[in-house]
Amino acid sequence: MTTPVYDDLTPVLRALRDGRPRTRAQLAREIGVSRSTMSTRVDDLLALGLVTPTGDAGSTGGRPASTFAFDPGARIVAGVDLGATHARIVLTDLAAHEILAHRVELRIASGPGPVLDQVVDVLHDLLDRADRDLADLAGVGVGLPGPVDHATGRPTKPPIMPGWDGHDVAGHLHTRLGSAPVLVDNDVNLMALAEHSSALPHVGHLLFVKIATGIGAGIIADGRVHRGAQGSAGDLGHVAVPGGDPVPCTCGNTGCLEAIAGSAAVAARLRTQGVDAVTNDDIVELVRGGSPVAANAVRDAGRAVGAVLASCVSLLNPSAIVVGGSMARVGEHLVAGIREVVYARPLPLATQNLRVTTSRTGASAGSLGGAWLAIEHAFATPGLLTRPVTPLVLPTPAPAPEAVPAG
């Protein structure tokens, strides 16, 4: 029996990834190999459980040819969205369909060791509940609430993550999760990826704006995440608001968007007007409860965001601006303020087909984006999905020595 060349199977998987069944002959023509070679490759993929028979293609005379389709449930991936006070962790199949998800309260300021170990415990629990093995895990995508060096996946001087600077997040998780690749990115990049891949796949140019305590943007250009030279593209929170008040910002500058329109800034402004507000949730409840003062404060914040985004529209010419993050839950007041400025300032050519809307992926955007990051890596890496799955057993820690009775 010949050993399959697993790297040669990846092009077949990529072709079948769109969900459209094909015959062996159709696949051979599409990929450019002989029918006998394709027959062998399809048989190998059937043995690996990555494709499944779907029926017959019909006949024009003679025996009808069988068709085959990709089975996205053959492997799974995990997406991890780490926030300042919580994490959302999801298992999906290779088409990003959610299998199980769990939200856990934690403090990112506790440091990488306690936080990442808690993530691993949740992942093991989800795998057990889904009746899947670590060997089924094709990758893990992790989003961090701070700057990430994309080349290394390490956080770079993250302002709200003490102890995380330069930490090998991928390596930390990899030692506890077997052979699965671990990929790390900024959380807003993953939100943009999720919105593009799950909700707006035909929008090749998209700007995802996360508005919460901090403000950031994920950029989709030509269907791909644009990260910039050092991975800091989209750092809207520290762009100066045109004509804005010189409010001090945590970065050391004044007049930054985050200092004027972030949720902490909005809450502080409300307190000066006698309205009790501290958190994102407080602002959301006030607006939903009909507070005109809160609604006006949120709309003003939207106008400040719109003033910065107007320049982005002229520079990047996106087809859609998607607003997410905890502040997006206030509804139309925030988006209305953004639209008011964004549609007025750039040239009409840049805005004639521009949509400004709230996120469709909502609170799951970050974790879903982590899953998509792992999925795209799996399909881009020859042989990663097509190696045989064998049960994976990690080494068991040595038992602690028994206590010796005092005597």
TrEMBL record:
Keywords: Kinase, Transferase. Pfam families: MarR_2, ROK. This is Putative NBD/HSP70 family sugar kinase. PROSITE patterns: HTH_ASNC_1, ROK. Residues 12-57 form the HTH marR-type domain. It comes from the Bacteria. InterPro entries: ArsR-like_HTH, ATPase_NBD, HTH_MarR-typ, ROK, ROK_cs, Tscrpt_reg_HTH_AsnC-type_CS, WH-like_DNA-bd_sf, WH_DNA-bd_sf. Belongs to the ROK (NagC/XylR) family. It comes from Isoptericola jiangsuensis. GO terms for molecular function: DNA-binding transcription factor activity; kinase activity.
